[in-house]
Write a structure and sequence with these properties.
mainly beta, twelve-stranded mixed beta sheet, 5% helix, 712 residues, Glucose Permease (Domain IIA), 6 domains, single chain
Length: 712
């Protein structure tokens, strides 16, 4: 709440003297203020749809151009207009600037022999009045063509433009709820018998005009809600938009609310805690938390939102309300029933091959498999006896029974990991709670596999598990730091890997196995005190990986300030070889460049390693090839420029020369296309075009072609 009240006061004071809509040709919104963005931050402006390129952008207020920046990445071509009210109005992803500005950019590019430029101006150089054309829309930088419009107040705090009198297209469509996740916040809490977060699908009740759950919630202990919800401008516009506000209420009391009207950059550093990366990876949806997961308040949230269910609560009624800026709203009704944690007891064998096991809640519906087959019959006993039983199929003898219970480590499961040698699959993961770290093994109850976790010669068996109709999850509690060896055995096959568990402390260098180290800056508020680091000594992900592969669980992140990760190569390299090293992050099946050298500053979870990059970029001729004759001018000269890993940045943008003279060719990183429009006619005869591409690690490629301009 540090900035909540000041933001409202500033909002009332900071009202543009004239609020002209910046894009007269379109009022359709494709992205709203405060939406989640990759990198654990939120959107600082609104995005306006651009049906065609080069639409005129007008000044919304009297002022002057204070700054221009041209880059192939990020905001692309961006213009900063300083208004007479003291605020900044920012227009990004442009294709070009108004006359005068455009010539200054080209002049500076040719002077520096670099496409990337950043120019600052005084208030006398380029003044504009409200309604004057200042630029043209485009698709430079990241994303599809659109206009990013951002407003910053006199204190440089991004503020929702729609709160300042800018009026988009009318909207009567309310937000849509897609799903709910209920998160147990400690190891003693349960949701529908689960130790892990549970996703509950929702549906719209046409009669009551509210969203409801498709399955009931039975829970106990400390819980938090997360929801997947989007807004829509209108039915014809398919863009998923962020909502203007969210609130969670218990009975008639609001216990959590979220509404980013304006925020500071400190708020934006904390905003990553509002979105759950774990849930996004697990359920393949983006969920916003309706509880506080950060030790300190985020400026545009209010309330804690955490829930405690005890025996005194038979059922609690919650409601989530999502609203857009036009006051269209939707409600999600959430009844939560108290249910005590399920505890499984011992196995007994009775006469006639009947087996019984005890449960504190026999109606939960545990699935039982005997050698991969379901029993012929399940026996439910009278309430109070707390036990279930089953009768074996006639074709199976009592000697072939294999079951998993708390005092055994024999499991029915199928393995699910790209690195294991089993034909079937098992999913391994870990989670951190206040009481420590837990290794989780999730599987389908089909095949007997033995799970062993060893540390210093001692074996740790799974002590917690839960089961549903689809899967079984076994949990191994980890109470101390150190290296743990995990062994999965099935018949004569085994899968081995290691997990290193460390206690985290801000301001302390943490030495990791494999000559790696992590340093968390002092003053960081760590969400949880533990993390786990998986290392693969012989990774098979890429041939050029030269260090152990380190995986950081998202429970460590986000951090306000990045942590420093140091990796060391596991092979001998001379000085020239070490200059070809870079830290990479493995994400969704691909390796992405993070930083050159052996040190990276990270604020995202993921898998990291040192990669040796000695491969130069590739240049593929596009619009012309060596020896071509052009019969006319103007003409676009283009080529594809690709790099296998380290890629390019503002200091090493692919460059084009015509007749040995630099030309400010545009480079589009997404299409990997370098292109230049020949605006001035070339004289008839022979000419050359040269393309020079140098990646971040200095690997260089030059491609020269000869072409001819025919006479009239």
């Amino acid at each position: 709440m540090k900035y909540f009240v000041p933001a409202i006061i500033l909002l009332l004071l900071f009202v543009p003297l004239l609020a002209d809509w910046p894009l007269p040709g379109s009022r359709s919104i494709s992205s709203t203020f405060g939406e989640y963005r990759s990198g654990l931050r939120i959107h600082a402006g609104i995005d306006i749809r651009t049906p065609v390129l080069a639409m005129p952008v007008v000044a919304p207020i009297d002022g002057w151009v204070e700054r221009l920046r041209v880059s192939p990445w990020g905001y692309g071509k961006v213009l900063y207009l300083r208004g007479v009210d003291g605020g900044d109005y920012i227009f990004a992803h442009l294709s070009g600037f108004a006359p005068g500005l455009a010539e200054r950019v080209v002049e500076e590019q040719e002077k520096r022999r670099n496409y990337f430029v950043e120019l600052w101006f005084s208030d006398k150089e380029f003044p504009f009045f409200a309604g004057d054309t200042i630029a043209f829309t485009g698709g430079t930088g990241i994303g599809r063509p659109h206009l990013h419009f951002e407003v910053r107040d006199a204190d440089s705090h991004p503020t929702n433009p729609l709160e300042l009198g800018f009026s988009p297209m009318p909207d009567t469509t309310p937000p849509v709820f897609y799903s709910l996740v209920v998160v147990p916040l400690d190891i003693s809490s349960r949701v529908n018998g689960s130790l892990l977060p549970v996703e509950i699908p929702v549906f719209f009740d046409e009669q009551k005009k509210v969203y409801r759950l498709r399955r009931r919630i039975f829970a106990s202990g400390n819980l938090g809600f997360e929801t997947c919800v989007y807004d829509y401008e209108r039915e014809e516009n398919p863009n998923h938009l962020g909502v203007y506000s969210l609130s969670l209420s218990l009975e008639d009391s609001t216990i959590f609310s979220f509404s980013p009207v304006s925020f500071s950059y400190e708020d934006n550093a904390d905003a990553g805690f509002l979105w759950d990366i774990d849930s996004e990876e697990r359920f393949n949806r983006r969920f916003v938390r309706l509880f506080s997961a950060h030790p300190t308040d985020v400026g545009f949230t209010k309330g804690d939102g955490k829930i405690n269910l005890s025996e005194e609560d038979s059922v609690l009624f919650f409601r989530v309300i999502a609203s857009d800026i036009h006051s269209n709203s939707s409600s999600l009704f959430l009844p939560v029933h108290y249910s005590p944690p399920i505890n499984i007891g011992s196995l007994e064998r009775t006469e006639s091959d009947t087996f019984l096991f005890f449960s504190s809640q026999p109606d939960t519906g545990f699935s039982v498999l005997v050698d991969g087959r379901r029993p012929d019959k399940l026996i439910r006993f009278e309430e109070g006896e707390n036990r279930l039983g089953f009768i074996l199929p006639d074709s199976i003898s009592g000697e072939t029974i294999k079951l998993f219970f708390p005092n055994s480590n024999r499991l029915f499961l199928s393995l699910q990991d790209a690195g294991n040698p089993f034909e079937s699959r098992v999913s391994f993961d870990y989670t951190v709670r206040e009481t420590g770290l837990f290794l989780f093994f999730e599987f389908e109850p089909q095949k007997p596999v033995e799970i062993l976790v060893e540390k210093s010669g001692d074996t740790i068996k799974p002590t917690l598990f839960f089961q549903s109709a689809d899967s079984v999850v076994a949990a191994v509690p980890i109470r101390a730091e150190g290296r743990y060896n995990v062994i999965l055995r099935h018949c004569d096959i085994s899968w081995n890997f290691t997990v290193d568990v460390c206690r985290l402390k801000a301001g302390k260098k943490l030495s990791l196995p494999g000559s790696a180290a992590l340093y968390i800056p002092p003053g960081q508020s760590l969400l949880l005190p533990f993390s786990a680091f998986e290392l693969q000594d012989t990774p098979a992900i890429a041939e050029d990986i030269v260090s152990p592969v380190v995986r950081f669980k998202s429970s460590l992140f986000p951090l306000k300030e990045p942590a420093r990760l140091t990796l060391s190569p596991g092979i001998p390299l001379d000085r020239a070889g070490r200059r070809k090293l870079a830290v990479g992050r493995f994400w969704r099946g691909e390796w992405y460049f993070v930083s050159t050298g052996e040190i990276a500053y990270i604020n995202l979870p993921g898998t990291f390693a040192l990669i040796l990059d000695t491969v130069p970029p590739v240049v593929i001729p596009g619009s012309i090839e060596d020896g071509d004759t052009l019969s006319y001018s103007p003409y676009i000269i283009s080529a594809l420029v690709r790099d296998n890993f380290s890629g390019f940045d503002n200091h090493c943008i692919p460059t084009m020369y015509i007749d040995e003279q630099f030309v400010p060719a545009e480079f589009d990183p997404e299409s990997e296309r370098l292109y230049y429009l020949l605006k001035e006619p070339l004289s008839p005869g022979e000419h050359t075009v040269s393309i020079v591409a140098v990646d971040r690690l200095g690997n260089r490629t030059e491609c020269e072609m000869t072409f001819f301009i025919g006479g009239e």
